[in-house]
Amino acid sequence: MAFIREIASAKATRIALVCDSWFSKLGGLLPEWIRVARWTIRDNIICGDEVVSFYAVRREEAQELYKCLRQFSSRLPRDVIQYYGR
Question: What is the pTM of this model?
Fold first, then answer.
């Protein structure tokens, strides 16, 4: 997973939207990344997985990401299930 850390650092990445299932065979994502939320898209036909996770790449970004996701949540379709926290 060092290559993910290197790319995120080189691009000054603050947040990541990820389908966790894509990384499970590789042992998961970077342990320092903080999963702030997961959205489950019922009856998904477009996205790569029905669950999309939102990560703060740096600890100091977690609270702001949480705040932004909560503010946006009322705009989501009703069939999207939201989970917050790890």
Answer: 0.88
